[in-house]
Write a structure and sequence with these properties.
This protein is mainly beta and 305 residues long. It has no helices and 23 strands.
Length: 305
């Protein structure tokens, strides 16, 4: 089982990103806000470095309601992108790309984003792309998420995708076809909205499948025995019990394979230990009937228990 190894001070932490540069391990944490009578969003997020025994502070970056870090390597150079969600008065907070200069990360590009919740980097036919999930503008959750393409010098916008409170993006490949799943969390009136899977048509992404979700805020793609699965974390309003769900690829589309009764679920993470498959479920809200417990499920050959 897992046992506590290290506690790291954070401030409203939303996500972690692990990466390796020249055999050294790093962890980046997205600190969203400093809780006080009036929450403060203009705070530092941090990159920690493994010193051989534990993670120690390596670098801090000023962020604005940070929700996600995305690490990737392009042309042999390491980058990390931060999704900034809120300035303190507006969700129109610029997000930022940092480049490794051999010693630390330096800012190289900013992006106009709106309640940015997630970045996803991927490569199609040798070309690098960076997609951002925009959750909301100042007045509406009906906004566009954006796919950027690397032009040799910087990332430039190449496609706007209509989304509804987009919270997460997940890129994956099935039979040499590229897909991008969007977790749509809410419209301006309800959490019960369709999330959507898009497929690359050779020039851009087009709608492939809509899936009914309830406040979806995370997708996790994984393979078991060569079969693709997608798990969705349905947060709803964070307080009401709802079903989070695993979908299985049937050769032409994703179909429901298993449901979990959940409250305040925030993220799924799949991992393998000694050929055994596990799914970890993170929660950020407690059920009124019990403590705030996150869970790890094990695959028994048929389903997760």
């Amino acid at each position: 089982q897992f046992v506590s190894f290290q506690r790291i001070p954070t401030r409203g932490a939303v996500s972690w990103e692990h990466f390796v540069i020249e055999d050294t391990h790093y962890l980046a944490v997205a600190n969203r806000n400093l809780k006080s009578f009036t929450p403060y969003y203009d705070i530092e997020s941090e990159v920690f470095k493994w010193d051989g025994e534990k993670f120690i502070t390596f670098q801090t970056m000023q962020t604005l309601g940070a929700k996600d870090w995305e690490h990737f390597v392009m042309n042999g150079t390491h980058y990390i992108a931060v999704a900034n969600s809120y300035t303190g008065s507006s969700p129109s907070a610029p997000s930022e790309l940092f480049q490794w200069d051999g010693m630390s990360f330096a800012s190289v590009q900013t992006f106009p984003t709106h309640g940015a919740s997630s970045w996803q980097h991927f490569v199609i036919d040798g070309t690098d792309y960076l997609a951002v999930a925009n959750k909301r503008t100042g007045s509406s959750h009906l906004t566009s998420s954006v796919v950027f393409v690397w032009n040799g010098l910087r990332f430039s916008s190449m496609q706007m995708i209509s989304t509804t409170g987009a919270f997460d993006l997940e890129h994956f490949v099935i039979d040499d076809q590229h897909f991008l799943a969007v977790a749509n969390s809410q419209s301006d009136t309800t959490f019960q909205v369709n999330s959507e899977v898009f497929r690359w048509n050779g020039a851009q992404f087009e709608s492939f499948q809509r899936i009914a979700t309830n406040g979806a805020i995370d997708w996790e793609h994984f393979l078991i025995g060569g079969t693709p699965y997608l798990a969705v974390a349905n947060w709803a309003d964070g307080e009401t019990q709802t079903d989070s769900e695993i979908f299985k690829w049937d050769g032409t589309q994703f179909v429901s394979a298993q449901t979990f009764r959940t409250v305040g679920v925030y993220s799924w993470r799949h991992f393998v230990v000694e050929n055994d498959h596990y799914l970890a479920l993170a929660r950020d809200r407690a059920d009124v009937s019990g403590p705030l417990n996150s869970q790890v499920y094990a695959w028994n050959g048929v389903c997760f228990l």
